[in-house]
Structure to design on (211 residues):
């Protein structure tokens, strides 16, 4: 009888310890789950800051190269450029880096995709029109929506092999490059138009002198 009581007490102790360990493990797991949510929120916030930095630099650069900047006095242009350079410098002081975890295959896919984009960029000066068309087909390859133009199927398969975060960055880079080309085209057309209008005015003035 006494032995039975001793055994019962020992079993009760083991049950209490087991129950306590399970509760503790459950609490720890719950804490880690909450921390995981905060870690992902931190990465998303840091990525948003990275994107905002890119957008700000692009906007500052766009203003510096805008047609409006060409149509003001030299003194005003110099003053505005000083302000723009100051803002660009302050923007560049913000350093945010979100590292993407990749397996070897994803790393190789990213290198391949980056190399293709760099090759197109290097052709800008030689053939801007063809480079723009190529970039549009690359950008369509990154879109989840129905594309409006041709799609580079080979590039699409390469991008699919990249990590999800890299896929977003590749698409963002292509969109930025296309916007820069569009802005360059507009600036060139406006410049040609202003030159044409100026030449026409000079011709009219010259003709009026002879009449």
């Amino acid at each position: 009888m006494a032995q039975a009581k001793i055994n019962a007490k020992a079993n009760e102790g083991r049950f209490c310890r087991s129950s306590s360990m399970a509760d503790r493990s459950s609490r720890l797991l719950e804490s880690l789950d909450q921390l995981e949510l905060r870690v992902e929120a931190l990465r998303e916030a840091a990525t948003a800051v990275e994107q905002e930095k890119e957008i700000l630099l692009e906007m500052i650069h766009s203003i510096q190269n805008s047609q409006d900047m060409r149509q003001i006095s030299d003194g005003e242009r110099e003053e505005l450029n000083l302000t723009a350079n100051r803002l660009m410098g302050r923007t560049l002081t913000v350093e945010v880096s979100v590292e993407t975890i990749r397996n070897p295959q994803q790393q190789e896919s990213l290198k391949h995709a980056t190399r293709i984009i760099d090759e197109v960029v290097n052709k800008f000066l030689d053939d801007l029109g063809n480079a723009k068309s190529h970039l549009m087909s690359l950008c369509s390859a990154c879109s989840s929506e129905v594309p409006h133009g041709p799609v580079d199927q080979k590039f699409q398969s390469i991008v699919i092999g990249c990590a999800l975060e890299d896929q977003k960055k590749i698409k963002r880079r292509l969109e930025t490059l296309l916007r820069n080309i569009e802005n360059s085209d507009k600036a060139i057309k406006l410049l040609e138009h202003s030159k044409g209008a100026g030449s026409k005015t000079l011709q009219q003035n010259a003709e009026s002198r002879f009449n």
Residues 2-64 form the longest helix (63 residues). Residues 56 and 91 are 8 Å apart (CA to CA). Residues 101-195 form a domain with the Methane Monooxygenase Hydroxylase; Chain G, domain 1 fold (CATH 1.20.58.890). DSSP finds seven helices and no strands in the chain.
